[in-house]
Design a protein that fits this description.
homodimer, globular, 6-stranded mixed sheet, Purple Acid Phosphatase, chain A, domain 2, alpha/beta, Calcineurin-like_PHP (chains A, B)
């Protein structure tokens, strides 16, 4: 991003922080807080898949279209927060030495509007680059686009390759203008990287968190699609520490559905019937490869209201499972498989009286559908 | 390697160079030259597969066993040159941040004895690391072995991963003690890296090359298993420039058999019959995924006497194809699939009167077998 873009984003963020809190500058990110009226609205951008086939016409065109979807959703909904729910890029396909350039484009719509965001990794974000076999034919290999800082003699490291998760996340944080709430997570959970918790402070009781958002790396790309035992243990200790009596409602975000999604999925028909709510049921759930206890841990906590995932572009439903909801986002990017119209799941949390989570899908064309209340339990 | 090891290797190389040429120092590698008597003997070390399952007992034990095979062959044959014929490491399995440590171990038997060598890449050398799914169970992830220079705070780049070809080759050249004749090859042939030509000078006519050795990268690992169109064009231009009238005999080395090997392979039986010569025929040829003309180019040149490949551990034959020979090496390393006894193909070239190429297999236990004459055509 150019310096003035960062300045502009910082100015927007500063104005928002000043309005909200009085005097928190943009360099020390303001804590997340419910907006006046006790609402906190989150937009989920899932499966953007930036960077596909940049050596063709249709690759760059679909990236432009993805920019447009996010702009339409952000301008219509004006969310307080954005969650980028994995597969921001298609790393097996990006013709650059470092996919963080495409990653940066994916987060720029939130940044440009001064909206704080966080990201989790999908299975395409740090995939190794897959060399098209036809590049070894007379067609040859197109030139790699190296960073401008590379000197005349090509950097040996400048080649088509996947970009490791830590490198993507570090680049995001370097260019965040103080707006990213992402993290590289505890070292002991690597290769899973996007493991962290965000607290959203109450509007009514300024010192108290009124919502916890857990982000987990569900793997894929450079390693198996799984939430590990180590992540389960880490989640349990975080939850015990931050929310010992379960008074604070909790939401969970990761990319690849767990096997529990298979159990609750609507039967093989394009219709989504009660108790599920949604508009797309066009394919089978593609779950993680193993289950090491995260669903058991989550379903035992009444404070956990819902899990949100992406990954399946042809599914956009929410279904109840035990005492919580399992939700798909909506395919947001024009990259990736499927021709279903693009949109974004909105999650609107209210801390007023009866804590509640409402959700709907905002389409690129401005319409909304699939409204559902994910929780009406009283927590405070 | 430690400084004294490099010094020792350099001293051996210097002594050899002084004996051979008089005054060429070890820092400017002596040109390769036929030994007194007009012989040039090459040992092929194929499929060493260092670094497998280092977190178990059997992984390190098989690497020790591979050290022993190479030592036995080198001490029995005393070759003038070693060709490392790909799959030096099993990069999808090495528990280090940079596989060049294992690569270095693979080439150290030649270096320690002051024998010059060169390397080509196989399909396992720069594979992405494959995370064992059981590491996400309660067993957990074993600690990654980072280079000692990494400070107390772990380097974000220090993780299990594949090491790119250029990085492996650059590390080899940095620690070669002037003995490596490998190269990263022309930039325009990347992602194929091990593309270069070595000239071996005549003993009788000191200025004239009496043998050309072509090394080609047959792909695999991070990109498809193929010799590209661009490599074919490069080979043709090199051959035209270095050997315009085809007077100099030529040998060719790469890792993965071309589809022509499938055509000449002995029928499905463990026996190898004339005109093929060998002792192992225990599996199907696993060829490259496409053929973009390299076999056509090679078979049209009467100066090309033989091609040597590795890759298939259960094959060790040579078979005639058009006017040249297609040969497998012998599985040298204790890493990789198969329980056939380990050994190395020896290629003994004579420039005397009738140029000739004799070959046999030297086993770890000291025996030899499968003697074959690959050429008796007169070139000079």
């Amino acid at each position: 991003m150019r310096w003035w873009q960062c300045r502009l984003a910082a100015a927007v963020a500063l104005a928002a922080a000043v309005l909200a809190l009085g005097a928190v500058g943009p360099r020390s990110p303001a804590p997340l807080r419910f907006a006046p009226g006790g609402r906190f609205k989150v937009a989920l951008f899932a499966d953007l898949h930036y960077g596909e086939n940049a050596w063709t016409d249709w690759g760059p065109a679909q990236d432009d279209a993805s920019d447009h979807v996010m702009a339409a959703v952000l301008d219509a909904e004006k969310p307080d927060f954005v969650v980028y729910l994995g597969d921001l890029v298609t790393a097996n396909n990006v013709p650059v030495a470092n996919a963080s350039l495409y990653w940066d484009r994916a987060i720029s719509p939130a940044r440009r509007r001064g909206v704080p965001w966080s990201t989790v990794f999908g299975n395409h974000d740090d995939m190794p680059f897959e060399w098209p076999p036809e590049w070894f034919s007379p067609a040859g290999v197109p030139p790699v686009h190296c960073p401008p800082a590379v000197p005349a003699m090509p950097d040996p490291g400048c080649s088509f390759r996947g970009t490791p998760r830590v490198e993507l996340m570090t680049a995001e944080l370097d260019r965040a203008c103080g707006l990213s709430r992402s993290s590289v997570g505890p070292r002991e959970l690597w290769p899973g990287v996007s493991n962290y918790v965000l607290q959203v402070l109450s509007r009514e009781r300024p010192e108290d968190p009124a919502l916890l958002m857990y982000f987990l790396d569900s793997g894929g790309g450079s390693y198996p699609e799984v939430v590990s035992c180590a992540q389960v243990t880490w989640f349990q200790s975080q939850a015990r520490f931050l929310n010992p009596d379960g008074r604070i409602p909790e939401l969970v975000f990761w990319h690849i559905p767990s096997t529990a999604y298979v159990k609750v999925a609507p039967k093989a028909t394009s219709e989504v019937r009660k108790p599920c709510v949604g508009s797309l049921n066009e394919e089978d759930v593609a779950p993680q490869v193993a289950e090491w206890g995260i669903m058991c841990s989550l379903s035992l906590r009444p404070s956990v209201k819902a899990i949100f995932v992406g990954h399946n572009h042809g599914l956009d439903w929410c279904c109840p499972y035990e005492k919580l909801w399992l939700c798909f986002a909506r395919h947001t990017g024009h990259g990736g498989y499927g021709d279903w119209p693009r949109g974004a799941r909105i999650v609107d949390i209210s801390e007023k009286k009866h804590f509640s989570v409402n959700s709907w899908i905002r389409m690129e064309n401005g319409s909304t559908h699939s409204h559902v209340t994910l929780s009406s339990a009283r927590f405070n």
